[in-house]
Protein: Class I SAM-dependent methyltransferase
Organism: Streptomyces purpurascens
Amino acid sequence: MTSAEHDALMRANQANWDARTPVHLASRFYGLDQDLDPERWFASFEWEDLGELAGRDVLHLQCHLGTETIALARRGARAVGLDFSEASVAAATGIAAKAGADVTYVHANVYDAVEALDGRLFDVVYTGKGALCYLPDLDRWAEVVGRLLRPGGRLYVVEFHPLLNSLGPKPAPGEGPELLLRHDYLSGGGPVRRDATRTYTDGPAVEGATDSYEWMHGMGEIVNALTGAGLTVRRLREGDELPWPRWPQMVRTESGWWRLPEPRIPLLYGLLAGR
């Protein structure tokens, strides 16, 4: 696909996330009408990998409602969240204000982050779960990340494993407990079009822009994009837990997340890279 075609699909995704935002704000899934506990969205290994954040400049790319951004700020970071959805940025700003969190939010496409942030550099760039699948070009993304990091800075990617994306992060209509591959693991097959009338949360149907597009990215593509941009991969973890029960046979763990009793397969990964 051409760059112009990619841009058109990303604009469709932007409209879809604008339309999702009011549904997510009101959902039990995010629970924003209760006491905010943003750390529940973090796997336990993330804080070990991220290390000390107090006094550090931390950028959260594709932050949506900014709940994880607030958790980074509560750890003492000078936190900035960036998202291409204007509705999400407005909602995140309100959530942070209500929580008394000192967070700055910026409305911009991730590919335009360097310009949108006026060339500001960061000690840590963080990108969280369910973000990379909305980016058509990982080489371009990695180049942007490299330009956002100070020398010695770190990128931390915590993402749903490409295997989970191949299995589908939510059940298909009528699907049982089987683990069935429904999408490519590797890139090259073009974007997957989804009718996002219903999102991953509870709540009413999305009104308006319901088309969204996702791109498959295998682990090799992700690592090669980062090394090609001059970053050094320092650690790669694969985890077998999710913050929601994707399959009916999943069991709850001590962390409050969910795991398949068998087979043990990777559902999440954490990748630490440095400049």
Observations:
- The radius of gyration is 18 Å.
- Residues 11 and 31 are 28 Å apart (CA to CA).
- The chain has eight helices and twelve strands.
- The mean pLDDT is 92.
